[in-house]
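Continuing the series of single-chain predictions for the mutant panel. This is the parent chain; the variants come on the following pages.
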Amino acid sequence: MHDFLHRLHLDALPQQLAQFGVRLLTAILILLIGWWLAARVANFLRRALLRGEVEATLAGFLRNVVYGVMLALVLAAALDRIGVPSASLVAVLGAAGLAIGLGLKDSLSNLAWGVLLVVLRPFRVGDYVETGSVQGTVERIGLMQTHLVMADNREVIVPNALVGSDAIINYNQRGTRRFEIVVGIGYDDDIGHAMHVVRDLMVADPRILAEPEAGVWVRTLGASSVDLAIRAWVKSGDLWGAQTDLTRAIKERFDREGISIPYPQSEVRMHPAPAPQVEHKP
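Parent structure:
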C-alpha cells in the first residue's frame, strides 16, 4: 500500500491540481476571447463585403464560414491547452467531416452551386430566366435553392445543382429583346405597299427602338399567302405589350388598306348521284 501511494505522488497532487486549474482557466479564457474575436472578425468581413457591393447572400455565407473556421481553431487551441492532443482532435474532426460530407453529398452540391450562382451572377433577382423546362421571374437566390415565379403566379423552387448544371437563358441580361411576327398577305396584294404600311406602324410606336433597326422581309411563298417576317427590338419590359399592339395594329391597318390576310379555306362541291339503272325484262 505504501508503494502504491508513493507512485500516486500524493505530495505533488495539490501542485498538479493547481497547474491543471491554471490550464483550465487559460483554456476558458481562450474560448471566451476567441469566441468574441471570431464574431468581431466575421461581422467586420460581412460589412466590408456589403460595402464592396457583394451579394448579401454570399456575404452572409462567407461570414459564417470564417466564423466557423475561427471557432474550430479556438476550440483546438483550448483543448490543446488542457492537454488534449491536437493531432487526435484533427483526426476525429476529419473523419467526422468525411462522414458528414458523404451523407450530405446532394446538399453540398446545391450549396456549392449556390455560391457559384451568387459569385458568377448569371442572373439577378427580378430577371426572367429559363432553366431546363422551367421559366419564371427570379424572386430569391438562396444558397440551396432558387425561387422562380412563373407567368401564372405559381412559384417554382429549383435546387441550385439543377440550375447550375443546365443551360440558363436570361431574357433580361442585355436589357433589350427582339420579337418576330409572321403575317401572310394574298398573292394579288402589293407586297411593297404592305411592307411600307408595317414600317410606318413600327416607326409610330415609341416602344420600338430605332437601334437596332426594325425591318420587314419576305419570308416564304406559302401555299396560299406571301409570308412577311416582321422583326423589331424593344426594351425587355415592353416586349409583350409592343408585340401584341403591333399585331393588332397590322390587322386593323391592313383591313383599311384593303390588304388581305388569307386563311385556309375548303371548297366543297356537291355532285348529284347518278340515277339508278332499271333493267328491262323481255
